Each structure stands twice: as C-alpha cells, then as structure tokens.
Amino acid sequence: MNKNFLTTAFILLMTCTYGSSAFAKSTKSLYWRIQNTSWNDQFELSYQQFIHTLGIARKNNLCHTTDQCLRSPVANPRYAALNPRRLNFIYSDCADLPYVLRAYFSWMNDLPFSFESELMAATSLSFLATDIRYSRFGNIITGKDQVFDGESINQVLQKINDTVSSAMFRTNASTSDSGYFFRDTYPTAINRDAIAPGTVLYDPNGHVAVVYDVTSNGKIYLIDAHPDNSLSAITYGEKFARSRLQIGGGFSNFRPYYQSENSIIAKRNYELPNYSLIQYQTEPFIFKGQVVSFYEYVRAVLAEGIIIYNPLGEFTDQLSELCQDILYREEAVNTSLASMIQESPHPDFLPANIYGADGDWEAYATPARDARLKASVRGIKDYLEKIIRGYKNHSVQIIYHGVDLVKDLREIYLTKSESCSVNARANFKINMDFILKNIFALSFDPYHCAELRWGILGNNSCSSTANKMAWYTAEQGLRNRIDRDNNIKTDYDVNTLPNAPVSQVPKPDLSFDKILEITRTYN
Fold first, then answer.
1. Do residues 298 and 283 make contact, with C-beta atoms less than 8 angstroms apart?
2. Whether the predicted pLDDT of 10 surpasses 50
3. Tell me: the pLDDT tens digits for 300-341?
4. pTM score
5. Vertex 382 angle, CA 378 and 384, to 5°
6. Counting Cβ atoms within 10 Å, is residue 283 exposed (0-12), middle (13-18) or buried (19+)?
7. In degrees to the nearest 10, what's the CA dihedral of 73, 77, 82, 83?
8. Residue 443 φ/ψ region, left for φ over 0, alpha for ψ in the -120 to 50 degree band, beta for the rest
9. Burial group, residue 286, by CB count within 10 angstroms (0-12, 13-18, 19+)
C-alpha cells in the first residue's frame, strides 16, 4: 500500500482520536508536575510518534512554524487541545528545536527534564576560545539546568531560548556520560533502531536538525528551525558536514535518565544498546564489499533491502529542496540589504573566521549558508552522475519507465529552474538556473550591493566603489570553497587576501550542463 496514503490516514485518524474537545476535557497546567520519574522505552516510542507526526505535517505544509505546529490538531493531535490558553508563543531557532520539542513532550507527560546551560571551550588558550559554537577542540559542560515541580513551561522554554546554542552539541561524543554534568545526547549506531524520529543531527558548522522519518529506501527526512521561527522539511545529505570525535557532530539521541529525589541519574554509554562511534571513523566505508562514501553508507544501511532509485521523483525533490534553500538565502540577503549595511565602508579586515564571526558579520553575511548551498549542488551532481551511469549499465536499482532518462531529467531541471526565482533587485528576477550557473560569483559579503550578492556583474551590476570591487575580486578564493572550516584564518586585508593560503582554492565544476546535455545560446 502507498506509504503517503498510510501517513495521511494516520494523521486523519490521530486528529479524530485526539483532536476532539471530547478527549481534552481540561487543558494542561502551565506548571510542571513530575509524576513519571523515568524516561522508559514506551515514552521514547511515544516521543518518536510525536516527532514523526509533527514532521509529516510540516512536510505537507499543514503548519510552518514551531508555534503553529505545536498548536495544530493535525501536526500535534495528541497534545494540541491540552495547550493552556496562557501558553506563551513558542519560539525556536535551529539549536533550540530539539530541546524545545523534548521539553514540551516532557511537560505534557509529567517527565523529568534537564539541559546543558553552561559550557567552556576545551582549551586553555584564550585565542582559540572566542566563540564556543565553533571551538576547535569542542566544549566542556560546566552547568546544567534541571526542572523541578511547580516550574512554568513558559519559563522553561524561555530559559532554553536564552541559554541553548549549537555549542551545547559541540562536546566530546565519547565522554561526559555520568555525574551531574552529563552530555544530553549520545552518538548513535547507524541502523533503523538507532536513527529514528527524534534523533538529533548536529552539523559542526553550527546547524542542528531533528529526524522525523526514515523511509524504507533509506532516506532520512528532518525538520530544522530558523531565526524567524519558521520550520523547514529537509533531506539528509552532503550539506551536513562530518566531524572529529572531540567535536561530537553527527547523529545523536537524547540520553535516557530518571529522577531520584532531586537528582537526575543518566544512563551511561555502555548501558545504551545503540551507543556507537562508527560515525567518527575515517573513510572509506565498506558496504557489501563496495567502497562507498559515508552518506552512501548511511542510506544503504538504513534501507530495508536493496535501494531502489526513482530518478525523476528524487531529482524533483532535490530541486524543490534546493529552491527552498535559495529562497531562504533571498530572505537573508534582503534582511542584510534592509539594514543598509551595504552603504557602509568596508572594514579594513575580514573577521578572524568568516564562518564563525559576531556582530554585523554574523547577522548579515552568508558564507556558511552559501557553502551549504554549494554542498547541496555537489551532492545533486554526484547523484545525477551515479544514476545516469547506473541506468546506462542497466542497473536493477534504477526504476525508470520512460524512453530518454537524460531528456526527462533535463526537462525537470529546466521547468523547476524557471519556477524558482528571486528578486535580485527591483523589477529584476533571476531563476535557479542563473544562480547555479553563477554560484561561485554570489557574494557572501554584506558590504556588497544586491547585484554582487547575487553574482550579477557587467552592465547590470550596481555602481560600487573601487574598494568594494577590489574586495569582491579578492574574495573569489573564499567563494570557491564548498566545505566550511571554522578554524581557518581569514582576517586578511584586501591586498593580502588574494595570496593568502585560504584563497588558494580553484573553482570546482558544479555545472549540470554536461550531465543533462544542456545546450545554451549564451555564455
């Protein structure tokens, strides 16, 4: 039976069962009552169902923000009707999201809850500890916040908003599994029991997402939150970087614990059947005698049987997600332009690291966002090459019933590209094809005008000072980077940047033209 049908039927059933006023004779108190002292297997399963339903609703555009989804009887059928009227607006950015969802579920189920509240960089060298979200050697937990009976959910969620950042996930994955300052999550094995709805994915470049579905074909779907409180539904792939053990990136699950009197007792790593450090081994990974990348390995292991590829459907989904990333970039660039920072003189030096700065650069620059976009394009190109090669070799894993696969893929690309556009400036739109063709020309620098932010050069470009154009030229090597590195030195001036080690990066070829046999009548 069709899985989408089953999902829709499940949502409707849950809505009918839990969404009626008859079920919710009274709302939940705002104040925490810890009556279930232990996170047992049944609560973990219920948490998975809670996250799965929420994610499916977001994927189907039935809610769009954390607050909307948690108040929706379709996205949150079991608990939405229990929300008290005085429940405040529920905010979440990417790092808050796992904790906000876990706290909300804990409150609704009278469970204990605690979270990391203070950290320090795992180094005694002050110049390496300027921003613990990107600390070179990870962080050490130095403080925890525990919820007690009588605390308001509004206060707890506000504490999470005020305290939590992606730094909370940047701790050594193999340690801190006992005592008061235990690590909130533990690294998982790669299997269908371990990676499930509710699993957290930490990208060491500062992004966090939550798994809401793992398909029978091995694809991992996630939700992530943004500073504007919006939620997006995304797919796991190359845009999520890997990390060393000390940084703790990758997939992890919340550590089960129980409350004894006023203390939280967490399970140790050796007590957890799905604890594993396999994510931190170096490539190559081997699956059934074949050398594969880590990303291919994850999908192959999670698939129930042989992976079956539906090229047309998967390529369409990839482009839809890519378009969403482009539209998020448009929002970020427009926010930057609205601040008028592009009218200010360019600073004499770039930040110490362009991917992990603060102030105006953190608020308005887009180097990390642009790197994720390029990594997504690279992943799609690799997918196309693999699929077309497999089809030509008559692979049984490729399901295609048409006549000309390349032609059909090309038509999908051109159609999706035309329908995905942004306003690069007033009365001037550019589509996805233009953006991908000029992806290494897109400026991440907030001191550049709208046209340079979108890679529009020549007669259509904005008038800009000679100094800013010099900066644009000097930053080409940084724009050529696909993989982010929060530890590289970038604080150069406009004259030394072009010859600096960080700039010695040739421009990669991410074009789909050759693969999809696209003939252009312009350069």
1. no
2. no
3. 999 999 999 999 999 999 999 999 899 989 988 998 999 999
4. 0.83
5. 115
6. exposed
7. -50
8. beta
9. exposed
